[in-house]
Amino acid sequence: MTGVLAPGARLGMRRILGAVVAIIGVVIPALPLGPLTAQPPFPLVALWAAYGWASEAPSTWRTPLFLFALGVLHDQMAGGPYGVFAALYVFAFFVGLFANRMMSAPNLLAVWGGFAATCAATSALAAFIALAAYGRNASALAFMETAAITALLFPLARPLYMPSAIGPQRAGAAEWR
Amino acid sequence: MARRRGAVRRPGAQRLIPLGAVAAGVLVIAAIVLILWRGRAPSDQAIVGADDSAAAIGQVATGPARDAEGVFARLGAMWDAAGRVRALEAENRDLRSWRDMAQRLAERNARFEALLRMPPDAFGAGADLTRSIAAQVVLDSGGPFTRTLVANAGAEHGVRVGFIAVNENGLVGRVVSVGRRSSRILMLDDYNSRVPVMGAASRVRALAAGQSSRPPELLTQPTAPIGPRLEYMEQDLRDGERVITSGDGGVYPRGLTVGYAHRLASGEWRLTPSAAQSPIDFVRIAPYDGLETPEREGVVADPGPPVRRPAALASAPEAPRRATATPAAPRDAPPSLAAAPEASDAPPSPPATEPPPPSALQAPPQ
């Protein structure tokens, strides 16, 4: 495990592990295993993956497609409608691309701030989508709380999705120039 | 043949916008279109069909965890067995005195009800609990927006949309979609859940409105009148009192335990759902068709015996008689049934019977 998370570890293995963690983060809260597994950041672990992969591989179409499929799985677990979490996860990836470009300094605070901005933008979209998908009684407040806690805990997940040896912009920043 | 300039990208040239951003933009738009196109339909066939598979997977996935839970619970119980026995014996002594008092009150209440010829107000009056279906909860909604459960009983077991779900502690929710071997239950604390309730002791009506991650709000005046003000004896729920379903609207039967009312410092009332006192593992799904109103039943009402009018009144014109005659209310009728003057400018006379004092509405002394 430690070897996989090491900065010099193989990229493929780390991405597979990151994908497995993201899938578990979607499935575990849906199992009736008690209140502990429903606590943040479990329901929105996929946001870590979206942001981390946006910094590492911004020029692949597979990542947003995977996030879309993960969102559809989450929608199914939640009882629908399809598209809510799919839109949010892919949107987080989309915002993550821009956040990584803006937060160009390769230090933890910049990366952390970028993820916080991604969570804030995703929460804003969630507020609009909740009304369209769940009716006027729905509120995105719970989503915002969960996203805030997920953002606070982001440094713990950074070794998995963004190895500390590279800055967030190294892998993909050249493609923006 | 000339080639288009835009179709060829030189090796080493950088894209202005990454491919991932283009793909993400397209997929976000596709997802939003999907939401707007499908809408919120609990009975969406695609979701209902996939619920069966998800329920089967959930049942398999939760099996080891449930077994492990049992092991840990047994180990924890063994840790302080002697202390628990002592505590349970003390609790048992207390409960015996409570049981004697409950039996006395129940007998007294039964006599009162027989005296008043009240219809039975049993647990969930109107619900057919003899035909209830026991099911295991295999999936939770797992999201911050919705609060639903998936149980492993579906159409093959006789479950239908609209059935109510209860557990040993009280009302859990209502079945909103049914698959072949699974059913989805909308919980009380979902945003779109609205349950008519009332205080078991105060009899004050309210609406339990789900708040997702927070305890449901108890709206005592969901539709506050804006026009003429209505003066009435101020009543409110009591802090800590048991809240039951009122049966209004015909969606839930009357008398099911929903939870306990608690007042916040801001004055708002919140509901602590009783079903969620412990993790919801099993539910009973019971049919409830709702009570038919006389209009919907379509049965011609019995007009009763013909009214024999005195000869003196038989020849009198209709209008003056209606203006002067006030039908007397039966002595035992409640004040609301006491007839009011129909076409008179005079102030209404006091009801034939006095309303019970507020103290009479309180719980019996313990």
In short:
Chain A is mostly helical and 177 residues long. In chain A, 69% of the residues lie in helices and 0% in strands.
Architecture overview:
The complex is a heterodimer of chains A (177) and B (366). By secondary structure, chain A is mainly alpha-helical. Chain A is 69% helix and 0% strand. Chain A is built from nine helices and no strands. Chain A has helices spanning 2-5, 11-27, 45-56, 62-78, 84-102, 108-134, 141-152, 154-161, 170-176. Residues 165-177 of chain A have low confidence and may be disordered. Chain B has 366 residues and is α+β, with helices and mostly antiparallel strands. Chain B is 29% helix and 19% strand. Chain B has helices spanning 19-38, 45-79, 81-116, 294-297, 311-314, 318-324; strands spanning 133-140, 148-151, 164-166, 171-178, 183-187, 194-199, 205-211, 214-219, 242-245, 257-263, 269-273, 282-286. A six-stranded antiparallel β-barrel of chain B has the order 1-2-5-4-3-12. A six-stranded antiparallel β-barrel of chain B has the order 6-7-8-11-10-9. The model of chain B is unreliable at 1-8, 225-233 and 316-366 (pLDDT under 50).
Per-chain topology:
The complex is a heterodimer of chains A (177) and B (366).
Chain A: H1 2-5, H2 11-27, H3 45-56, H4 62-78, H5 84-102, H6 108-134, H7 141-152, H8 154-161, H9 170-176
Helix pairs in contact in A: 2-3, 2-4, 3-4, 3-5, 3-8, 4-5, 5-6, 6-7
Chain B: H1 19-38, H2 45-79, H3 81-116, E1 133-140, E2 148-151, E3 164-166, E4 171-178, E5 183-187, E6 194-199, E7 205-211, E8 214-219, E9 242-245, E10 257-263, E11 269-273, E12 282-286, H4 294-297, H5 311-314, H6 318-324
